[in-house]
Amino acid sequence: MTLTFDIAVIGATGTVGETLVQVLEERDFPVGALHLLASSESAGASVAFRGKNVRVREVDAFDFSKVKLAFFAAGPAVTRSFAARASAAGCLVIDLSAGLPVAEAPNVVPEANAQVLAGLKHPAQVASPSAAATALAVLLAPLRNLLDLQQVNVTACLAVSALGREAVSELARQTAELLNVRPLEPRFFDRQVAFNLLAQVGKPDEQGHVPLERRLVSELRELLDMPLLKISVTCVQAPVFFGDSYSISLHSARPVDLAGVAKALEDAAGVEVVEDDYPTAVGDAVGQDVVYVGRLRAGIDDPQALQLWATVDNVRKGAALNAVQVAELLIKDLG
Fold first, then answer.
1. In this structure, are residues 182 and 198 in contact, taking their beta carbons and an 8 Å threshold?
2. How far from 323 is each of 67, 133, 305, CA to CA, in Å?
3. Bridge partners (DSSP) listed for residue 70
4. DSSP code at position 334
5. 78-123, pLDDT tens digit by residue?
6. How far apart are CA 319 and CA 188, in angstroms?
7. What is the pLDDT of residue 335?
8. Who has the most CB within 10 Å: 20, 31, 98, 248?
9. Residues sharing a CB contact under 8 Å with residue 242, sequence separation 6 or more, in sequence order
10. CA 201 – CA 188 distance, rounded (Å)
11. Is 139 helix (H, G, I), strand (E, B) or coil?
12. DSSP letter at 107?
């Protein structure tokens, strides 16, 4: 008889939560009972799973001893409120919200640092990092030793779906208003995002960096196990519903072997190389389970520089799929 696991998904009505449930079904994860949880405002809704509609219940009164595994796909405040209760009940926690300290919940991307899971004690708490960190870790892991990475510079053009359904609705509303020549009234964003680019995602600190930029630097160093790696990040809000895109510049300790880089990426799990062209979020990445990369080229006047372009489905590969892949590795030790 196949071993199954009773599972809870907190934040089940959000963009990531719904996609996570979809990925669990698509990958035939050994789910026994599935408990879908959310705030009181979302309780009563239903989410499709294996041909049935599963009703969403309030997380506040849930007994975590009923499940062995809980995905926290709501905000960090929700994770901080309930993760300890889940762990105390013997439940494995996978957090997608950055709500737990790294010392308690290490960030894991299986293609980059799966070995971290071997040292965890049950009931473990594990974090699935930001979508940007996941995508970049998948891409850079096969290159870190080949290039002897010295520096990483990233411009991340981020989809609004990372900010939730309200942001998606805002982009759709703004687009409709502009196309119908109606006055534009920004609501979720502080200015027009439709047909525009916003130079920051979030409120900057005293040094001018937004929290997501600092988070990405910290997570990427952790995932690559390169605490001293120099990383520069600019996060840009793009008028795109789903799919993040990245312009990446790497600096190596030695001249870059383009053929060797292409071969390493072609052989890497979770990466799809687009040769003689470039991938786009809409045309390639959305709905897919890999990080697409193209426009591999050496620096114009620096043989130790490498530039490339990458794109990924931020909700699917960047968040939901990574969390499920982590869970697939963890349950091997729960049987």
1. no
2. 17, 13, 32
3. 8, 93
4. T
5. 999 999 999 999 999 999 999 999 999 999 999 999 999 987 888 8
6. 22
7. 55
8. 20
9. 159, 161, 281, 286, 313, 314, 315
10. 12
11. helix
12. B
